[in-house]
Amino acid sequence: MRITLVSDADLVNSNYRGYQPLMVLSRRGHDITFTRLGEPRYRASTLLQSDVVHIHRYTDPELLQIVAQLRDAGIGVVWDNDDDLTAVPRSNPNYRKFGGPANRARIQAALRRTVTAADVVTTPSELLAAQYRAAGADDVRLLENYLPPEFGRVKPAKHDGVTLVWLAGLEHQVDYQRLRLKETLVRLLDAHADLRVLSIGLGLGLPSDRYEHIRQVDFLELAKGMSAGDIGLAPLADIPWNQARSNIKLKEYAAAGLPWLASPVGPYLGLGEKQGGELVPDDAWHDVIDRLIVDVRRRRKLAKNAAKWAKGQSIEDHAHLWDSAFRDAAQRAKRRAL
Quick one: pLDDT at residue 90? Predict the structure, then answer.
């Protein structure tokens, strides 16, 4: 089957929602074309040679014109999104582009047009799946984010002391502020002389020589970059934007051999000790982290559970779900064209 991906390579999400699953399908014999940022996104001559076109996030008028051509030509369209672009908070770097009532109305209208034009809609979020069904999408599939094979080859790195790791994009500034985590982390660093804090992505501004900030890590190096940690942090403020997230951050920590602590919000609800971590109420972050820092036995037990969970969360083991979505979209398009 000939599948063409249309995505933005600058979005880390596009790895999980397109590039990595299609790399697995390519190794299984599918003919894959990657059309990503920096190239002509909508070269009709390329897209019209496909059996299926897989689109991550784009909803602009130019795209919808192409989708109409694809439908007329009997080519399947799979559209995917993994963020609630109607609920972007003010602290988000993309607020000017997506936030506010005027943008919300525009985005909602574009989403309705897009999901009703697609043969299959995919998302890792139950909340977004419900939104797309309500908007008129015929076939919406909940497909979680899964781990690339490179993450499964990482082994925990030996090190002294205890290291807290927070892998966080800039949009997590709202979580850092609302949950008062700077105050919490400063208190913990003061109380534990062997404690270190590492943040990847978001800078935390901690006044300590035992705090390290790494601005960016290549996607396939994420698990390796966290492998010298001991505890992964996944705090989320209880706001609409966070309700539509995926649970991939916990899987990333688990692949790196880290037990995790997360907020009982959105995608993390229902996860816990079996998956290698604990859910932490908003007012308990200091106490729960403090307890896990000193409880080596508990950390080891959770790390063992996390590693076991991560082994079952590989893209390769779940690529058949994407394959099914693409095949069904192609078959639906062919029936429509008859």
Answer: 81
Which residues does 312 contact at the CB level (< 8 Å), separation at least 6? none
Best CA proximity match to 119, nearest among 140, 135, 134: 140
Q: Which residue has the higher pLDDT, 60 or 316?
A: 316
The span from the CA of 228 to the CA of 130, in Å, is 39
pLDDT at 136 over 90: yes
What architecture does CATH give domain 2-146+315-337?
Answer: 3-Layer(aba) Sandwich (3.40)
Tell which CATH classification among 3.40.50.300, 3.40.50.1000, 3.30.390.50, 3.40.50.2000 matches the domain 149-311: 3.40.50.2000
Domain ranges of the chain: 2-146+315-337, 149-311
